[in-house]
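> @MW can you paste both from yesterday?
MW: sure, first one:
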Amino acid sequence: MWPMVICYFYILCISKKENKLGPLQKKTRYIKNHLTQKLKKYQDNLSLKQIKDKIILLAKYLFDPNTSKAHKMMVASVLIYFISPIDAISDFLPFVGLSDDIALIVWVYNKLLPDLDDYNKKSQK
């Protein structure tokens, strides 16, 4: 899992030089598509409904060019963990399947809360 996160971070932050549809755009599309699919798949899950807005805000914050590399790495790591089928607790287990995903999302969200509030205010203007 961590090698995948490190590779994604490299592609996201280092290889911005590409003008054509390259690895950065493919990874961006991959995360957006899989994130949308997972949110639709678990749309009836009560605990996920409560943090859906946080997940969407984190995704927007990740793809903002003004976000720092360290914050991008944190957000990318947690979103990749969220969309990954390999988890500490399998997602298909009732009641507890998404608990590890949600805990990590809430932790990163709270850690970045001041910056996310600023970003949210700027994006709403």
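MW: second:
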Amino acid sequence: MMELYRKSMKRMEEEGVIKMIEILVRSEGMDTFNVDVKEVETIHNIKVKIQEIKGIPWDKQVLSYKGKKLEDDCNVADYNIENKSTLDLIVPPPGIQLFIKSDGIDTFTIDVKEKETIHNVKMKIQEIKGIPCDVQILFYQGQKQRYKLKDDCSLADYNIENKSILDLIDEKKMKEEALKKGEELLRAQPDLRNKTEIRWSEKGTGSNFVMLCELLKGNAIPTKKLDLDGNNIGDSGARMISEALKTNNTLTALSLGSDNNSMNE
């Protein structure tokens, strides 16, 4: 059947019933090139010819004419594409696969684009695992440093490549666990309930710092003075302390660091 079809098409072409036309294909990042096609050829066939010329897989191509996307099963005549017409070729950026690792759940994968924002990545995690975007904290270990990923940045901004691993922290779960540990600590060391001054010696914003913030937030300890001098808590730590102070009603003095930033009521 296909052989008869080909012979019929060839005869019609020889008789001038089917015309050959030349179309121009332009795409960002490459020179405009020509493709010879028949008026009755499908868009799929054109994509196959482009694949033969440029090596771009046909199923990765998006063709448009005068701003309209061309469907694979339609033909040249359906869109009134004439000789010397110009088609626009778009090749979407290749997708990458990321591994998401988090305590308490199995490592899972998500498929994303290099230019997707971190917020979009969080949206996909929410769809898969049900963890709300606003409680997700994502980290990426680069070659020189560990990054806390910002929502409005893209994967490309952090040079995150295919098969990279992102560490996911559920902030809500982390705070709940920290508060639970804090309550256990208070049961083990009840004198903390009466301690009005604390000089915090641990650096950074690890789990113990989160625990401290949750205890302050819940007014579980009567701390009036908190010294964080030299602890390098950074902007994220300052935000956590600020959040705790919204509900804390005991703290009256806070030293934020070696730069002598402080808060006094």
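> thanks! The first strand starts at residue 20 and ends at 27.
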